[in-house]
Design goal:
single chain, seven-stranded parallel beta sheet, globular
Length: about 375
């Protein structure tokens, strides 16, 4: 059996890795091919293209790269025509992946959607369009099901893989010593994201916020785990320009997050990872002005960070676009220092949000569904 996986960004690469390992443990004879990153490749997926060469965010940025993305689409379509996979598995990356899904259907290849488009938040009509293309869906959050069920899709929630994946590599006190975090210092993480564009849009503000924070809390130390998809040299350049001391790390990221006291984080998967590790955050989100203006017309949600969405509460502070200022970042972070009442409230809510993610073992259950679906279609 041959299964093609398509994941176009860092979080999808992590999910793709977990699924690939689970599939190959259950059915070692399965051949996995596709579009993804280094983690998927290490897990046994033969890649046609690496997403790191194509990752962009925002409506305007996609338009600027549209020719390259269409070239990629054509290349992956030709790949499917050559390889004739028994199934195409989409892993997030909605706008591109659903164009690829249409190509797969035209070639008679069944489509399985893992982490479907967030139709609950915007463009709800997408659920109906997607239901016409994909044969089965699995969501990673329970609040995503109703809009797809109403559209007639075969969809289920079997848990969130982050519950298994997010585990510190060492005990907290051991990690504090490993990362040289003195007991009398408050360790704050800067989590600017895994895309070049996020680094440019948010890291300068984070660094300015850190500098502002030091004015009132000189007992603070800062750390930044560097993603392998961004330039360490560029990050060092921005830190030097800001004139603030930040320790860069490239290993044991979950232990670092579990050892730290609070974080300023770009909205995304990392905020949910932090929640699972009990790390409270000030959540930041910023796009280019054009992308933000377009998004504001299309997206209507009360919260944009996952823990807040899961509880439908604004318990963890979110700073959006022009609210991302050094003063706001510093002011909100001070409320999350050890001993602060607000910190206790936030960490208690984070635990409640994490309980919504379901039981461990989600990747295995997803892999089992994919294999069953592929076998059913192969038998027809």
């Amino acid at each position: 059996m041959k299964i093609m996986l398509s994941a176009g960004e860092a979080s999808g690469d992590v999910h793709g890795e977990n699924i690939a390992r689970a599939i190959l443990s259950m059915a070692p004879e399965t051949e996995l091919i596709g579009f993804g990153g280094s983690r998927m490749e290490e897990a046994g997926v033969r890649l046609r293209q690496n997403f790191a060469d194509y990752s962009v965010m925002g409506v305007w940025e996609v338009l600027l790269n549209i020719r390259r993305l269409f070239k990629l689409l054509n290349d992956l379509t030709e790949f499917m025509r050559e390889e004739k996979p028994d199934m195409l598995v989409l892993i997030d990356y909605p706008d591109f992946n659903w164009r690829l899904a249409k190509k797969a259907k035209a070639l008679g290849i069944p489509v399985f959607s893992y982490i479907p488009p967030s139709a609950w938040a915007w463009r709800k009509g997408r659920a109906k369009d997607c239901a016409k293309i994909a044969d089965e869906f699995i969501a990673i959050f329970p609040h995503e099901l109703p809009v797809y069920e109403a559209a007639g899709a075969k969809i289920s929630f079997v848990g969130n893989p982050l519950v298994d994946a997010v585990r510190p590599e060492m005990p907290r006190e051991t990690a504090r010593r490993f990362f040289k975090m003195p007991a009398d210092k408050t360790a704050i993480l800067l989590l600017p994201g895994s895309r070049k564009q996020e680094i440019e849009l948010l890291l300068p503000a984070m660094l300015s916020g850190a500098k502002k924070l030091l004015e009132d809390r000189p007992d603070t130390i800062f750390y930044l785990p560097v993603a392998d998809t961004v330039s360490r040299e560029r990050i060092e350049e921005l830190i030097a320009d800001a004139g603030v001391s930040v320790t860069l790390t490239e290993e044991k990221r979950y232990s670092l997050m579990a050892a730290a006291d609070a974080a300023m984080a770009t909205s995304g998967t990392v905020v949910m990872e932090a929640a699972l590790l009990g790390l409270p955050c000030v959540v930041l989100y910023r796009l280019s002005p054009v992308s933000y203006a377009i998004g504001k017309l299309l997206v209507h949600v009360d919260n944009f960070s996952l823990p807040n969405i899961l509880l439908n509460e604004s318990f963890q502070r979110e700073l959006l676009q022009d609210e991302v200022t050094p003063d706001n970042i510093a002011s909100e972070l001070k409320k999350l220092y050890p001993g602060e009442a607000h910190r206790r409230e936030v960490t208690a809510k984070l635990k409640s949000a994490c309980q919504k993610l379901g039981a461990p073992g989600a990747s295995g259950r997803v892999a089992e569904r994919i294999l069953n679906a592929a076998r059913e279609f192969a038998a027809k």
